[in-house]
Predict the structure of PF03932 family protein CutC.
Amino acid sequence: MRLEVIATDLTDAKLADQHGADRIELVTGMAEGGLTPSHGLIEEVVERVSIPAYVMIRPHSRSFCYNRDDLDTMIKDIHAVKRLGAPGVVLGALTEEKTIDEAALQSLLEAAEGLDVTFHRAFDEVKDQEAALETLLCYPQVTRVLTSGGKKSALDAVPQLAKLVRMTRGTHLTILAGSGLTVESLPAFVEQTGVLEVHFGSGVRVNGKSLEPIDPAKITELKALFG
């Protein structure tokens, strides 16, 4: 079981690293669902943290539909991520019809050549997750899909997440389950869905609140569940 933890500053990132997280999703604006962090923060995390940091590429929180100006900004940010040495990015784009925007995705993936790519929770807004997953299976550069199975909490989407895990078994894609997970709920959730990677934000913070600091004991406890 691999554990990804959201970090919003260098302290978060260092705590996640020191207490057993396998990977960081580096964002700002966590209360808005995560936006692109500053270049200074990316550079500091890359230089001072040993685990991989995947950087959110999201220019605004209005929607996951992007115009040319948005895409130009996202591409510049991806180039900066590469220059600063982070190994991966977290991105996604949808059409107004709630399907994956393949034209936008192709532009972003071209800029991200050489980086690992996670398709983020825009996936939870598509009208047909199975069709969207089939689309992403056509893009080997996308190795991970962060999803709550289309529900606010992944705990309410166990059958759907189990289906997505089955669809990706033996492919280049891994389902990264996130949203609403807790230390207490995780063992049964993993057994029922078959997920191999989980994503925690508020669930590893003080009082379970997104704007509170990371609680290192919760990360340690999560890692202990799976050895």
